[in-house]
Amino acid sequence: MRMPTPDAAVIARRAEIAAALRRIVPGEGVIVSEDERRVYESDGLTAYRQPPLLAVLPSTTEQVAQVLRYCHEHGVKVVPRGAGTSLSGGALPLADGIILGLAKFNRILDVDFANRCAVVQPGVTNLGITHAVQHAGFFYAPDPSSQIACTIGGNVAENSGGVHCLKYGVTTNNVLGIEMVLINGEVVRLGGKHLDAEGYDLLGVMTGSEGLLGVVTEVTVRILKKPATARALLVGFPSNESAGNCVAAIIGAGIIPGGMEMMDKPAIHAAEDFVHVGYPLDVEALLIVELDGPSAEVDHLIQRVEQIARAHQSVSLRISNSEEERLAFWAGRKAAFPAVGRISPDYYCVDGTIPRKRLPDVLTHMRALSQKHGLRVANVFHAGDGNLHPLILYDANNTGELERAEEFGADILRFCVEVGGVLTGEHGVGVEKRDLMPAMFDEVDLNQQQRLKCAFDPAGLLNPGKVFPQLHRCAELGRMHIHRGQVAFPDLPRF
Amino acid sequence: MTRFRPSDERELVDVVAAAAAGEEPLEIVAGGSKRGLGRPLQTPHTLDVSAFAGIRSYEPEELVLTAGAATPMAEIEAALDKAGQMLAFEPPDWRALLDSGDASPTLGGVLACNLAGPRRIKQGAARDHFLGFRGVSGRGEAFKAGGRVVKNVTGYDLCKLLAGSYGTLAVLTEVTLKVLPRAEDTRSILIRGLDDATAQRAMGAALNSAHEVSGAAHLPRGESGRDKPLTVLRLEGPEPSVAARATALTAELAAFGVIEEARGAHSVRLWRGLRDVEPFAEFGDRAVWRVSTPPTSGPALATAIAQKFDARHFFDWGGGLVWLAVAGAKDGGAAAIRAALNASGGHATLVRGAPALRAAVPVFQPQPPALAALTRRVKESFDPKRVLNRGRMYPDL
User: Fold this and answer.
1) Alpha carbon distance A423, A354 (integer Å)
2) Which whole number is the average pLDDT over B120-125?
3) A225, A350, A414, B145: least surrounded by Cβ within 10 Å?
4) pTM above 0.95, yes or no
């Protein structure tokens, strides 16, 4: 992975930049010593490490604005960071760029039950929002598996999903407004406690922009009343095909479960060996279907899903009859990553989305790729929305295995695109999938995306080296090429 | 005045590239049902994109539909209906409101205006269901964004940006949407006689319950078609669930007064009328505003406007959407409505007004300078010569 060549002149100015930033963020808010900078050297994608030029931890919007204005005026790159749980290297530092950490923005500002929303600072954790509203029976719906640690600001940057997003949507469907700071220090508010935008939906563009467009300093999210009840089915199948067909049949019957997760045999075994919750070990695929909502509805739909599962060759079927049992069904799935971590020194989590009906083909192809690369793979799958998470098992101590794991992951993602899917469903492009972007988008597509970036950040100072495989100067992107020598309408036939 | 009607993407690219080269703006038209929406255009040319029509692929079990942007909504809805599915954001049909006769609304038009009906509060707007597109930018370049799957974070979410851009960034040629199963059953709970503030509290109580209310509207006296105000709450889902929730909700809201029910087709008709702003269709001479504000602010805003002008109003989205029909104000009520919004937050769009009024007052909520400048830079990043629907949203856009 090649990152943009660090600017030695900027690195040489480290002390001067630190002094200037200390005038904005006094005291311990500017981190310069090598030991302390090392804390920020990577995020959840730990294969890549790079200590930042320095880290700055502002605590007010005004400080963020001044820091960005300084960086803008002095040509210093900026990598925004929440909790650093990105799995795609979105918060990977640059040697010649500062880390702008939002950890001190950790306050819940306003809980407004009457308008069903909460206003929070970006450093509040995802689960922290639910904790602030659950006493009144409310929750914040998107639930990425890192929710105990990941921040809402990071969720906005990555447009995070979770296991319940088929029914409740991802971050972009649950954010009502933000306050953000542009690289030139201007503060802009988008949305609020009301719905939709008056002009362009810049809130929708900011969500999932991976820290390339601006720095979020406040977030207003929609909160929902907790469903009256939730029950789950744990269903084993003799083949991935039958499990896949069952998923299609459930949705075809008009049922949108709160969560619908699938695990393949290696993942089932790893999870059961770890948490011992009674997953069947003689099946090829396991499906967890959770129905939540009004009790009458859940009881009704559980029966229908049971009928559908039995009609699709299920070989084992359990229905939760208590909250304890429902959580036990989930325990193995929720522990899938650490469980795989137990059976392999390292694992690499891949994230692609496919049209659901292609699942059997994709899993078959993955087995072939597993042999080709000589590495094992376990699969967990958000079956409802086609989001795959293959976990590639490798040992970083063996020379070349990390590279093989990455090549294996890249092959999987290219195949996802080939069958009509996409490179990333919820983890983001970051540095991880940056060089795969041309598999999905041609140069015209990517140039148009970068022109949008230019509208926010013409000097390319915000999180450069992420998302786009090739960086172009905005002046070059803005140039209009005269189309096939035409000048205007007179040359055109009237249609 | 020239009307261009490209038959494929290549011809479309030629037209837009030529418009850019000559800096001669185009008005984008397909069915033409929303030509009266937004600021009046004075473009020298019309770009008729109705050739980009037809459903390209629809697989109900994948919950995804791909169609030409100019596919008539009637065709989309018929295909979805056959498979027991729907566009969950409940796109309204504003033909009666906009007096656009039998012009045919298209899928691309619905997306470009980011329309949504009463179910917006539960299922989101058009933006939330727009998964991918092909289009031609104002630079005359064909490009694509998004994908054909429901979960995707690859690259910027340009679908969100195009939804609600009123054709000012790119000409959509092909779009992909998320679709959802249609509810088996629908039922409405009706409360009569509440004033606006009390009705808002009743709607809030219903929306803050766990009963998954998918519509919450209030018609004051006059707008309800009766001599008493009418508050309506909608429940959708499998029949046993709807029945159980109706019973529970009725009990929880008993303190708000006599409660009746509207079932099946009666409930469907009621919500279609609210969706399509039927109460205001007859007031052809009034300026009609669509105001989005925090739900608890809706009643006070309506009262403030009623004190100044001869204004009719009703609420959707639990009070968060205020429909206003204003008479007797020179600016259609623009200044007063936007002054009221300064306090509560939100935005107002002049949905219906005579062309002179729509040219004279800002149709879309004016933006603070930093945001307006950013909006303009975004426009120029897609359409540097401002040839696509120039002036439809803001005068310099």
Assistant:
1) 9
2) 98
3) A414
4) yes
